[in-house]
């Protein structure tokens, strides 16, 4: 349909331009009668197109200013001003073609998504690979993705893969994904063929959700466009009144024609759609899919932000802490059963299980007969045995309660975190304890959101109050709402809507009611697209909270440009109408002037496609980011050694204290100190050149000096211990230095990782 309209507008432009030019040549040759006939014929198709568009608008109960163009061409033909009619027709046709070009250009990023939709999948069945329709793929199916092919459904990788995710995220760099990681449909295999285990049906996968949202966005009319229609009706009445008054006062119907010519088409119907769609396109280019122009406008006016904690403020990528199990089962067996079944689920905990199992080199089996209960757990068959994983309450419906579970639940309640309980053949065999971490970009994103005009930051979570308030204090949120049920979240959002436009950000799986209740619901991360495309108004396809800042910035920029274009365009048009009413602007000159106004308005509206992004002009390559993070991970055993010694120092014998301190100092000299010196000498100069300024990493270098100082003091203390062991003062001083060293190194590493993440190419 879009292509047909573009073709029709182009044909009208060609006809009107050709007939106007031919008529001018004939008139110059002295064939005035034939020239007038050619101009008359050239104006008729545009007149007919205007009549059809007005009729369609009336059927849809919309008003528009096309009626002014229709009246001006009709009046010009009636007065035998065929040259004026031909010029007006050319201006109208060029304006329609220009508007169509601007909107098609603005929609380019969103429309590109639709052309990449996968149609079939290669599935393992009956001992061979076979191409099957996409609708036949089920969770747990073994799927192969060939080189250059599109990932058909969401799933978990069976091995390493290289993916081009630019269609989803706008990031052109090839991503290296490892075995066990979850991947989204719509990504393109940029490397060798790989296998995956499907975790969702095609209709529930990420790309299907994106396609639904893009189609809805292309069909939905922005409230600003509807508001423009209402202003257009008012503008039509004013234009007709001014035209009639000029005719009656001057007694010259030509003045009425001049007024109508200048009044059509109005910048109202050109500026708003182009600016809003340009904003939506820019969001899509940055991996932010906005469902419609209305959502973009509400996003621009948002002043209150609610967000879920898990998967939004935290990474949603839990890490394995420990495995508890009964006396008859070993930990690897518990993890293998849990991870094998988890391959068929797209939940973040399931992905963490499969990654943990593959890191331990466990061989996973293909699950079958899968049944998943959202937010609770799933059950299926692994190696011929019935396995259930999930919450304690869920697994208790499939197995008897184990005696060790009470102790584990008590520890979890005290320490926080979560556990995935595992049952095999109706026996609770173990539990995998998981912990989540704050996203690296979360603190910076919240600071930037405040700077962009968000007045209230409210965290909604089902966690206990003490845990929730600890996280809230760490991030500096305005309000913490802990121990929230879905009904509590709904009530909080509905109450806040009386104070302003409410934005709700959730992980898109369990937060659908809250997302639907807010003025603008945003599903966080690619997983949210498939699960909450109906409930959310927007999806952040890039799994970074700071992209929300980009979305708000783009939305406010687009709305500001739309309003600016309307005000400037209408002011220029009204001024031209007044000049025409006084007889100082003939119809042909008025048509040319109105075309100039239309071009100015559309070009200004297209400025909405240019907005400053949060991405730095100079970026740190992903390979460097991965290497720097790997170096930090290598320091983890050293930090654990320091903390363990600090905790256990009072219980050690005099001889053991000296030996333990010597071991720690050796680890510091071998691993920690060389790492920090290398950062100071090699890494920081490179980062400083990317950041700019005289000494942007001065504070970070100061942390290095404090680490060196504390390590030196610890070494001196150990070398000065008496032969019979430390006294109480020395013991306390050793503990103080150990605890202090661990704290500063952990904080310093966290700061560095946030910096690396912020500067990474595409995050």
Describe the protein in words.
The chain has 763 residues and is α+β, with helices and mostly antiparallel strands. The protein folds into 5 domains: 2-109 and 221-278 and 556-609, no CATH class; 119-201, Calcium-transporting ATPase, cytoplasmic transduction domain A (Distorted Sandwich); 293-315 and 439-536, 3-Layer(aba) Sandwich (Rossmann fold); 319-435, Calcium-transporting ATPase, cytoplasmic domain N (3-Layer(aba) Sandwich); 622-759. The chain contains 28 helices and 22 strands. It has a 7-stranded mixed β-sheet with strand order 10-22-21-20-11-18-19, with helices on both faces. It has a 6-stranded antiparallel β-sheet with strand order 2-1-3-9-4-7. A hairpin with a 2-residue loop joins strand 14 and strand 15 (385-390). 47% of the residues are buried. Residues 1-6 and 528-532 have low confidence and may be disordered.
What secondary-structure arrangement, pairings included, does this model have?
Layout: H1 2-28, H2 32-59, H3 66-78, H4 82-106, H5 108-114, E1 120-125, E2 128-133, E3 142-145, E4 155-157, E5 161-164, H6 166-169, E6 175-177, E7 182-183, E8 188-189, E9 194-198, H7 206-219, H8 223-250, H9 253-263, H10 268-285, E10 288-290, H11 293-300, E11 302-308, H12 309-313, E12 319-325, H13 331-342, H14 348-359, E13 368-373, E14 377-382, E15 385-390, H15 392-396, H16 405-415, E16 418-424, E17 427-435, H17 442-451, E18 456-460, H18 465-475, E19 479-481, H19 486-496, E20 501-506, H20 512-517, E21 520-524, H21 527-532, E22 538-540, H22 547-581, H23 587-605, H24 622-634, H25 636-648, H26 654-691, H27 698-719, H28 728-759
Parallel strand pairs: 11-18, 11-20, 18-19, 20-21, 21-22
Antiparallel strand pairs: 1-2, 1-3, 3-9, 4-7, 4-9, 5-6, 5-8, 10-22, 12-17, 13-14, 14-15, 15-16, 16-17
Helix pairs in contact: 1-2, 1-4, 2-3, 2-4, 3-4, 3-9, 4-10, 4-23, 5-7, 8-9, 8-10, 9-22, 9-23, 10-22, 10-23, 11-22, 13-14, 22-23, 24-28, 25-26, 25-28, 26-27, 27-28
